[in-house]
What we know:
The complex is a heterodimer.
Chain A: E1 5-8, E2 11-14, H1 21-27, E3 51-54, E4 61-62, E5 73-75, H2 79-94, H3 107-121, H4 134-141, E6 165-167, H5 177-185, E7 191-194, E8 201-204, H6 220-224, E9 230-232, E10 245-250, E11 259-265, E12 268-274, H7 287-291, E13 306-309, E14 312-315, H8 318-336, E15 341-344, H9 351-365, E16 370-371
Parallel strand pairs in A: 1-5, 15-16
Antiparallel strand pairs in A: 1-2, 3-4, 3-5, 6-9, 7-8, 10-11, 11-12, 13-14
Chain B: E1 13-17, H1 21-24, H2 26-38, E2 42-46, E3 59-61, H3 68-81, H4 87-93, E4 94-95, H5 97-104, H6 109-116, H7 120-132, E5 136-140, H8 142-145, H9 150-163, E6 174-176, H10 183-188, H11 205-215, H12 228-237, E7 242-246, H13 250-253, H14 257-265, E8 269-274, H15 279-282, E9 286-289, E10 298-301, E11 306-310, H16 323-333, H17 343-353, E12 370-371, E13 395-396, E14 415-420, H18 436-441, E15 446-449, H19 451-456, E16 464-468, E17 473-480, E18 488-492, E19 520-526
Parallel strand pairs in B: 1-2, 1-5, 2-3, 4-13, 5-6, 7-8, 8-9, 14-18, 15-17
Antiparallel strand pairs in B: 10-11, 11-12, 14-19, 16-17, 16-19
Helix pairs in contact in B: 3-6, 3-7, 3-9, 6-7, 12-14
The complex binds iron/sulfur cluster (3 copies) and FE2/S2 (inorganic) cluster.
The site of one iron/sulfur cluster (SF4) has 14 residues of chain A, from helix 5 and helix 6.
Amino acid sequence: MTDQTITINDQTFSFEPGETILEVARRNDIDIPTLCYLKGATPTGSCRICVVEVKNARNLLPACSTPAEPGMVVYTESPKVVESRKMTIKLLLSSGNHNCAVRSGDPDNWTAYQLRVQDYDNSGDLCPAWGDCELQNLAFRYQVCGEPFPTAPPHYSMETVNPFIVRDFSRCILCGRCVQACNEIQVNNAISFGYRGAETKIVAAGDRPLRDSDCVFCGECVQACPVGALFEKNARYDWRPWEVKKTRTTCSYCGVGCQLELHVKNNEVVKITGAEDTPPNFGSLCVKGRFGFDFINSGDRLTTPLIKEDGKFRKASWNEALNLTVKWLSEIKETHGPDSIGVLSSARVTNEENYLAQKFTRAALKTNNVDHCARL
Amino acid sequence: MTNSIADIEKAEVILVAGSNTTENHPVLSSFVKRAVKFKGAKLIVVDPRQIKLTRHANMWLRPNLGSDVAWINGLMHVIIKEDLHDQSFIENRTTGFEELKAMVDKFSPDYVESITGIPAQQLIEAARLYGSAKAGSILYCMGITQHTTGTDNVKSLANLAMLCGNLGIEGGGVNPLRGQNNVQGACDMGGLPNVYTGYQKVTDEAARAKMEKAWGVSGLPDKPGLPVTHMVPKAYDGELKAMYIIGENPLVSDPDLNHAEKSFSRLEFLVVQDIFMTETAQQADVVLPSTCFAEKNGTFVNTERRVQRVRKALEPPGSAREDWRITAEISRRMGYPMRYENAREIFEEIAGLTPSYAGITYDRIEKVGIHWPCPTPDHPGTPVLHTQQFTHGKGVFHAIDYIPPAERVDTEYPLYLTTGRLLYQFHTGTMTRRSEGLNDRAPESFVEISAGDAEKNGLIDGQTVRIASRRGEIEARVKVSDQAVDGTVFIPFHFAEAAANRLTNAALDPVANIPEFKVCAVKIEQAA
Lengths: 376, 528
Ligand code: SF4
Ligand code: SF4
Ligand code: SF4
Ligand code: FES
């Protein structure tokens, strides 16, 4: 159908009824920046970073919440659009403690402000999202810093009392993505917008710490936050995006099989994020999958084979431990028959390993005594 | 699961039975909650505890422990009586309807109320809700299976789904939620005493011959082996002499632990392969250090039958080795060499021997996993099972009568105990209890009790009590909670030092050999 098309930057694209300008653009690899938009949730159109110029429209329109209409002519980086975005970024940078280098070129102003914030939060640290911040990226992309606007002192102090998530309201740009992540994606209904006007804040359970609310520490909000306002507590000073190697894998806890990214630095997992845009979880994780990884690099891990002698374990070489195992299994098989041996394979190990365990039991031991503890 | 996880959002009605979904399958529970909040789905939760999901539910039915067959038969009674069943599905796709109809005839709402405690009117409303839906999805978990009647319970849910034509369609299905990451895979791979990969029976001569040829051996055993729940008593009797345990911790997860411990100590030889010194490894003669999921390549299968990649992200500690390399090395030294370069080669062998995996390769699942069955390289996989016909032709209705649980409360043991998991811990705790944050949220065991029962027994929140069953006793703190209902207490089973399974009953389901973790009788006393 010819009329189901729009023109973006002089190129014509077809669209499905109900698709937004942003969706059509992204499907065709046209980059329109967004901040408050969260995939899978209802667009709120509140940050106005995604505005585009639509021919014959009076104002610039937010691409994330404007449906495509037949014959629309859209420009995504026109001078008017760029000017508007610059202004939006400037305002956002000036609204809080965005103390990465892009905030201002004036060191005096910068330091004075810094000191006030440090006083307030007992933290002189640079923003932990440095290098992984959508606002910082936009500031760079549009070459903006925040100086001409007076900086407001933060209204609210940092929340560090739970073991997983640090909430630093001095960096919150009130985009609302965390609220949508919590209410529309995970449906944990733990956080919402609270107070009004300049006092606006994201609150849990009548403005209590997360741990005293319905929060279940899934961390969906942390992954959704575009800036450094929500951060994994343990990764805060350990994780730099360019220092870690990311490996996509499958969660090893429950049977949902969420796809996740292990962020590894110096042979240690320092952070886990949900793999976006892929089933079954489309970026979501639960507290175990996201935060329950300490065991991997735990000092309690077994590192060498052990043999029990007189009721006590002693270290042994692989050769010795395997020989002893083989000697016992062979003798028992010989004397009492194959069915006197049982093998438990595991719901925790891979398919390949389960396959070999049953193959070994059947082909080498010659018994079908193989099971696992799935029912337990 | 007969259907996929994403499919839940297409259901008109979702019936969740015996699954504390928000705690045990949190990300999957989001699909349920979203379906209710944004897609207009109706949610019926059937659970003896007032679990969190009930907050999102249109109806919460609270059955007495172990009365599942009764309420499911009751739903079917009402559905048939009110003519809400799917006549054409029943005629074209199933057999045994008349027997089922005769059986559920006596399960009138009043009779069901007398067994389950579910008010007759609620049962009728739930039946109407599920029975009138175009697509109704059933989700269930251990609360259905861990009973002496577990197999009956599962078959009853299948009856219910077939009765309403809710199989083989989007948004429908009977969907078991697997508790551990790779339960599905362990079963698919033949980690079971009676089948090879893809559920090919060891008693089937052709299947045996196929494996003998592929594996280069002769004389594969033709009678099914022992399930784990039989291995333990056989070890106790001295018939089972040795065990090789890979990554399992039965000495926290087994029922009636005191008995299980004695059984394991009677083994002549025990070798345990694990990443930690677990309670089970403590009993071993030899312990072999293995790698965790982040240190190896391979595949897991999730609860929706999706085969997904596991990838190595870091080096294992010390001289720990991948489980498959250890098994292969033991096998080689016993005179049966297994030569593989890597996990991919093993997977290729699996695909070659397993029709439902035949079309799956590492390359195909590099980005997105595939649902088996996937018989050919160009087959897209099967998110919804049974769309055309059932595996064995027609779907069979099973007429099933209600049988009470193996253990009932009496004057000496007046409370029912049910066990389960917590959001912040996992299984026997070997992994989660090593996470500071998770322990901060769920540091120790507790016994969850209703305010009414607490008052009756003179117990206060936070005090330490002794909980005893006919098999053992443990101490734990009292947690008065509105999730609990009168007459039933709950204890999580993660904590070895106060292991709930010292109390539980090892009575087994006769078919599935699953112990009755979900029901036993206990008493609570002030700790000395
Ligand atoms: S961690 Fe999860 S539950 Fe808690 S506020 Fe964030 S999104 Fe909501
Ligand atoms: S905390 Fe982050 S996601 Fe939430 S409103 Fe603030 S900036 Fe946005
Ligand atoms: S992240 Fe949570 S829900 Fe997902 S697989 Fe892991 S344990 Fe299960
Ligand atoms: S991204 Fe469109 S208004 Fe914020």
